[in-house]
Write a structure and sequence with these properties.
A mainly alpha; B alpha/beta; C mainly alpha; A: mainly alpha; two-stranded antiparallel ribbon; globular; disordered C terminus; B: alpha/beta; five-stranded parallel sheet
């Protein structure tokens, strides 16, 4: 409890100790944590390989931003609407997509993401086109969220609450069902689990977290444009979850924080960022498949997840 | 939900609300000398896509500016202060751009900003700059960054709306022209030029383009677009493409026999480079390109600048765009001089708004600023390649 | 105009088809979607440029050396990313190929910088006229070499013992092991051959495309669309699909709107997967 209190106090004091720039980085990190936690449900617990998360992030950001700019909707409602729309979209895509075998989900979602970005670039009457648009500053009870410091104080508790929710879900029947499906789909089905239904729920969870992160992105940056939601973003999100530890609870949190902060610190290393991110991803998959969280659990400092021991990213062995 | 979690969340929420209250009441202490200014230095913040998808808009542009700063420093600086600068990468991505600018403004505490070459980044960053009240000279051509006019944002680069109109004027100056077509990228940059061009054609000349074709960034082939253009049979085609795609289109235009006059935008002003990319000098036959430059790339006066650049930055690509940052630096240095030793951001901005008839060594015409107009440059010329040499033909078509 | 569009579409589509073929080979034999395949294509163009233009090898020698590099890189890739993860799930391997793809792209950026490089044309630029149709020499080379490659590939796959061993390992690993086939070697060979195909496509397109580090991704997506259209996992499907993508993007661009040229692949992917997910040739029958 003491550790948590100290971490909490530190996070709250961060903008005062480190300034506006680091407040922005911290807020962005919270968004990355949300994305990683949501992706972990689909990739880590359910073992489904999808690229959709970057487009879902974009759906959240665009819905929120467009509602605020075009209709003057207050930001809380706009964000909630963004989440709802994103979840709805995920159901529309997920229900047909999840009926087909594993690799096809990856294929379909690649197409979905690229089509989404193309739509944003070309349906200019709706989306303002490739230039994107500015989102008006949000107001919370009379305070204008015009600096990252202020917005951070909104994003931080929301993130904490969503992490708590994720923990609760992971340890519930839902979490156990997802892991059962990941580890052996046929056996899970034999046990009477409605596999497709659970996969769809995992997809919708991914969408809910991504949609929320998108809405918060819109009010943090106050600017939304298509370029941020393509396949590059999808791969960055994979990076964070893998490095943190797929299928563990703390993994996505640690991964998102480490990757975001490390790359901010490496700002000066021009030219190497692409190389390094690819190297990290490949190295972790090959040599540290449990990710940072998994390794910390194995070596002691962290208590292991009560739920399961993931051996490698995803789980079912290849068919012979 | 477990009791521990509930406690932590409630506790965090209470403290967060208290913090918000405290923060809204806090004030920022005033500083002694102006931000970014010390007794012997002035700190300038530079941000650009040094890495990412368009690194050609990074160092090849910004080093045109830092070249001049280095030379000014070597001669003793300005009123006893040397110019120092800090560079941050924005990777042409808005969220990274905001991070870069926040770092420059809040961590590095620069006096002013000179940079920003991607329009998406600049559009995202502008509110931040206005809030922080930092003077900012940009290299971006997107007009949305400058209008409505804000006290803090300036440029010496020809913005896309002026450029689109100049392209249209040139097209209409071709003798006996009746049919005009356009081919361009449909991103913010491309549309920023083609839409004003279409508007100018319609408003000023009552002409509607007979074709308006789209070409993607990164395309290797433009057969469908070229054949459609050929079918439309235009007298003039306005080409709003980046250099690589421009080379691809020109190659296809030669292949399928487009006989029209081709008018390229500023990204295509290095015609010799286009010829080498396309692999044949037949592409230069009817090609004219808008140039921001006072002298053509092969003029001895340009050669001097190129030599100095090469000497200082041997590893950086040479491109005409270096003149954008160079002209910006010329203006900055001049205005710093005029403001005098007692340097504040406010005085700098006031001096900048008074600049009239300033002659840049690299841009034609003069640069003029005012309180209403922060875009200093409205002139451009057109070049073509004759016998392997650049010829500056002025603003109208010449056979 | 139709003839010109189709001819140019076939030339572009041949590139997509060759890339798709390599991708499908790797998928068929090891069930892995190799996301580094696009970067291998890029390397083919860069290596060809280095050997032919920078180090002044004769063209034939440059081609052979580049393809040899392709073989080696493919084998290495299999050894490094697939074999250690074979006991786990396919997702790990795919993620590893994504990581390695980024590494390759980053290396290309470091080694060859970011400017667009021009590969010197092998033959002149003057197009040939064949019965009202225009064909540039490089397009002719692309089409003929691609067709030859595909024919050789089919012959090898169907009629040589290597081909039979590859097919056996892909369809029934245990059975193949039992009859003495070195299955691990077959997997490695398929990655090596797939990469050779990818690099060959890069070499073919280099003279007409400017070379830059991101070129692989664009082609990867189009080849991917072709493979999906033809039925993912089917060889004839990969070829027909690739060619179709090339032709359709030209036709759509010319007759409907030029905006569609870049987006045709994604629309194709979406349409196929929603309407007839198994593609034209039915795709791979899952065991």
């Amino acid at each position: 409890m003491l550790t948590r209190a100290l971490i909490g106090a530190g996070l709250l004091a961060l903008p005062y100790a480190l300034g506006e720039y680091w407040a922005y980085v911290a807020a962005l990190t919270c968004l990355h944590v949300l994305l990683a936690v949501g992706l972990n449900f689909l990739l880590g617990y359910a073992g489904q390989f999808s690229f959709g998360h970057s487009a879902l992030y974009g759906f959240g950001a665009y819905t929120t931003g467009l509602l605020m700019v075009r209709l003057g909707v207050p930001f809380v409602l706009a964000i909630l609407a963004g989440v709802a729309v994103t979840v709805l979209v995920s159901l529309l895509i997920g229900i047909p997509a999840l009926r087909v075998s594993g690799i096809y989900l990856g294929i379909i979602t690649v197409g979905f993401v690229e089509l989404f970005v193309w739509g944003l670039n070309n349906w200019r009457d709706l989306s303002f086109g490739p230039g994107g648009f500015a989102v008006p500053v949000s107001h919370l009870g009379g305070v204008a969220l015009s600096t990252s410091t202020r917005t951070y104080y909104l994003i931080l508790p929301v993130t904490a609450a969503m992490i708590a929710l994720a923990r609760w879900l992971a340890q519930s029947k839902l979490g156990r069902a997802l892991v059962a499906i990941r580890d052996h789909e046929v056996a899970a089905q034999a046990l009477g689990l409605d596999v497709t239904r659970y996969k769809i729920i995992a997809f919708a969870l991914n969408a809910g977290y991504a949609g929320l992160a998108g809405g918060l992105y819109a009010i943090l940056l106050n600017y939304v444009s298509p370029g941020s939601f393509g396949l590059f973003e999808a791969i960055s999100q994979f990076n964070r979850v893998v490095i943190g530890g797929i299928g563990t609870f703390l993994g996505p949190i640690i991964g998102a924080i480490v990757v975001t902060v490390v790359f901010e610190l490496l700002r000066g290393a021009t030219g190497l960022q692409e190389l390094l991110s690819g190297l990290f991803l490949a190295s972790f998959i090959l040599f540290l498949p449990r990710g940072l969280a998994g390794e910390l659990q194995r070596r002691g400092p962290l208590a292991p997840d009560r739920l399961h021991r993931p051996r490698r990213a995803g789980a079912a062995p290849m068919r012979t | 939900m477990k009791r521990n979690e509930l406690l932590t969340i409630t506790w965090s929420a209470v403290v967060a609300l208290a913090a918000v209250l405290v923060m809204t009441l806090a004030t920022v202490p005033a500083s002694a000398q102006e931000v970014g200014v010390t007794d012997d230095s002035i700190k300038i913040g530079i941000f650009a896509p040094f890495t990412g998808s368009v690194p050609l808009f990074g160092y090849p542009i910004t080093r045109g500016g830092t070249l001049l700063y280095e030379e000014v420093n070597a001669k003793g600086g300005i009123h006893g202060r040397k110019i120092a600068w800090v560079e941050e990468d924005d990777q042409c991505d808005p969220s990274k751009g905001v991070a870069a600018v926040k770092k420059l403004v809040h961590e590095h505490k620069v006096f002013m900003l000179h940079g920003g070459n991607c329009s998406n980044v600049n559009l995202a960053v502008r509110p931040e700059v206005e809030r922080a009240k930092v003077p900012w000279l940009t290299n971006s051509t997107n007009v949305g960054i400058y209008l409505p006019t804000t006290p803090y944002v300036f440029t010496t680069v020809l913005t896309t709306d002026f450029e689109g109109a100049l392209l249209a004027d040139f097209a209409m100056s071709v003798p006996n022209v009746k049919r005009v077509a356009i081919i361009g990228h449909r991103d913010a940059w491309g549309l920023g030029k083609s839409e004003p061009a279409v508007k100018r054609l319609q408003d000023q000349y009552k002409v509607t383009p007979v074709a308006n074709e789209a070409m993607d960034r990164g395309a290797n082939d433009s057969t469908p677009q070229t054949l459609r253009l050929k079918q439309a049979n235009p007298d003039v085609v306005i080409v709003i493409l980046y250099p690589k795609e421009g080379a691809v289109f020109l190659r296809d235009a030669v292949k399928y026999g487009i006989g029209s006059v081709l008018v390229g935008n500023t990204a295509m002003e290095d015609i010799a480079d286009l010829v080498s990319k396309a692999g044949t000098d037949a592409v230069a036959k009817n090609l004219y390109a808008l140039t921001l430059l006072r002298y053509t790339m092969d003029d001895p006066k340009m050669a001097d600048l190129v030599e100095r650049f090469k000497a200082k930055y041997p590893g950086t690509a040479i491109s005409p765009f270096m003149t954008w940052a160079y002209s910006g630096a010329e203006v900055i240095v001049e205005v710093l001089r005029r403001t005098g030793r007692d340097l504040t951001r406010e005085k700098f901005l006031k001096e900048l708004e008074k600049v009239r008839g300033f002659e840049s060594t690299v841009f034609p015409g003069t640069l003029n600023f005012s309180a209403e107009e922060h875009r200093g440059n409205r002139t451009a010329n057109f070049v073509t390649l004759k016998g392997g040499k650049f010829v500056n033909i002025g603003p109208k078509y010449v056979q | 105009m139709l003839g010109l569009l189709v001819v140019s579409g076939i030339a572009n589509g041949s590139i997509y088809a060759v890339v798709a073929l390599g991708l499908t080979l790797i998928y068929r034999s090891t069930r892995v979607l190799n996301f580094a395949h696009g970067e291998i294509f890029t390397l083919g163009a860069y290596l060809g440029y280095t050997f032919y233009h920078l180090w002044k090898f004769p063209y034939a020698a440059a081609v052979v050396v580049t393809l040899a590099c392709g073989l080696v890189i493919g084998l290495l890739l299999e050894r490094v990313s697939r074999r250690p993860l074979a006991a786990g799930s396919v997702i790990s391997v795919v993620l590893a190929t994504i990581g390695i793809g980024s590494v390759l792209k980053g290396l290309a950026r470091l080694l060859w910088r970011d400017d667009y490089l021009t590969f010197p044309p092998i033959y002149g630029m003057q197009p040939m006229v064949l019965g009202g149709l225009l064909l540039s020499p490089q397009d002719a080379i692309i089409i003929s070499v691609s067709l030859t490659l595909m024919a050789v590939f089919f012959w090898m796959f169907r009629f040589t013992s290597l081909g039979k061993a590859l097919r056996a390992s892909a369809s029934n690993r245990l059975g193949a092991l039992l009859v003495g086939i070195r299955v691990q070697r077959m997997f490695a060979a398929s990655w090596g051959l797939g990469s050779v195909l990818g690099m060959m496509a890069g070499l073919l397109v280099a003279p007409i495309s400017l070379i830059y580090p991101d070129m692989g991704f664009d082609v990867f997506v189009k080849a991917f669309a072709g493979a999906v259209l033809g039925g993912f996992g089917s060889f004839p499907g990969a070829i027909v699909g690739g060619l179709l993508v090339g032709v359709v993007e030209n036709l759509a661009g010319a007759y409907i709107s030029s905006v569609l040229v870049g987006s045709a692949p994604f629309i194709i992917i979406a349409g196929v997967l929603l309407l007839f997910p198994k593609g034209l040739f039915g795709g791979l029958r899952e065991t």
